[in-house]
Amino acid sequence: MKYKSILITGGAGFIGSHVTRLFVNKYPQYQIFNLDALTYAGNLENLSDIESAENYTFIKGDITDESFVNALFEKHKFSSVIHLAAESHVDRSIEDPLSFVKTNVIGTMILLNAFKSLWKDDFTDKLFYHISTDEVYGSLGADGLFTETTSYDPNSPYSASKASSDHFVRAYGETYNLPYVITNCSNNYGQNQFPEKLIPLFINNIINEKPLPVYGDGNYTRDWLYVVDHAIAIDLVFHKGKHEETYNIGGFNEWKNIDLVKLLCKQMDSKLNRVQGSSEKLITYVKDRPGHDLRYAIDASKINKELGWEPSVTFEEGLKITIDWYLDNSTWLKNVTSGEYQSYYNKQYS
Ligand code: NAD
Ligand code: TYD
Fold it and tell me: Is 217 exposed, middle or buried (0-12, 13-18, 19+ CB in 10 A)?
């Protein structure tokens, strides 16, 4: 068997939990190890349905702990890595850039070194799959799309740290022949996303009838993809993607923030049996994010042509599933918005 022992990093986070679930359920022949430090963004409740699966092991640990990571690779001889662990929120990166360098750059380096040390004499059937973001390409104007050959031009400490880690992965491929693949995906939404990102933060605030803080004039554009479709794309690239290549993943689904927020308000009013228009009244324009990228939009034609991938749900459908999940999982939402969340929220939005 080609990939028998797979290390997924950051599997207790938002996207990582969907990828871990898909691999554990779909591939009983693989042993899946989930390494996660359980930071504020990591939550084992995200994986309660698979925690006792025979082919699944959770390991609590930090990817920046070099001796721990080396010992883990020696012990389990991971034949492949799907690397998602990261600090992932732009606003937090503006407050504390160094922690993004530590996890996203140094942590990736430590994993690369451990993988290289283990297999350097024979990389046959091995793979280091690095999950990245479209934000490394910087900001688009009104026209155009990011392709796999768009130059890197990151603007936030978050995107700079992800760009740096992408460069190191590619450099290890060139220098040491380490087999890798990188995917750069657009904004994800869906179940289990921590409510610091736009969609779950606004769902939570609408439920609680709190202001909806739209940055600047709200005319910023993002390309939204349902998280399960991202997980499906990761499965495809992992098994069929060409090594030493990059694939862009996106939803062909651009929305201006303010239009998205209005759609969300409409759907939430219907779901909560509130008078249409009541959630929109919560919209509050607040101070803009420094260095705010105007527009992201992905050209996902390479993955579509080569691997036949395309999103499986429309945005309206995905958003409905997402809203239903947050309304049905109020305990999850309450648990993650207690404690540290409150102090973050007060600092960010006061
Ligand atoms: P997330 O913040 O929800 O989860 C990150 C996970 O990594 C958490 O479980 C956290 O505990 C873990 N983690 C953080 N630091 C760690 C460390 N030092 N050691 C071990 N584990 C650690 O993030 P997400 O939104 O699921 O993003 C996952 C990956 O996908 C990231 O690499 C991100 O850059 C990338 N990505 C995210 C999006 C998006 O829209 N969310 C889009 C494209 C790419
Ligand atoms: P976010 O979900 O943080 O993702 P990213 O910054 O990685 O794209 O933000 C999505 C968009 O929503 C972005 O343009 C910033 C904007 N935004 C707000 O207007 N208000 C908010 O409170 C947040 C968190 C984001």
Answer: exposed
* Per-residue pLDDT tens over the stretch 246-271: 999 998 999 999 999 999 999 999 99
pLDDT, tens digit, for every residue of 13-39?
999 999 999 999 999 999 999 999 999
74 labelled catalytic: no
Helix (H) or strand (E) holding 101: none
55 close to 40: Cβ distance less than 8 angstroms: no
The C-alpha angle 217, 218, 220, rounded to 5 degrees, equals 115
Task: Using the mean position of ligand 2's atoms as its centre, give its distance from the Cα of residue 157 in Å.
Answer: 15
d(CA 26, ligand 2 centre) in Å: 33
Active site (annotated) includes residue 134: yes
Contact 57, 33 (CB under 8 A): yes
For residue 182, the ligand closest to its alpha carbon is 1
- Smallest Cα–Cα separation from 19: which of 306, 305, 239, 256? 239
> Among positive and negative, which fits the CA dihedral 286, 289, 290, 291?
negative
Output the pTM of the full model.
Answer: 0.98
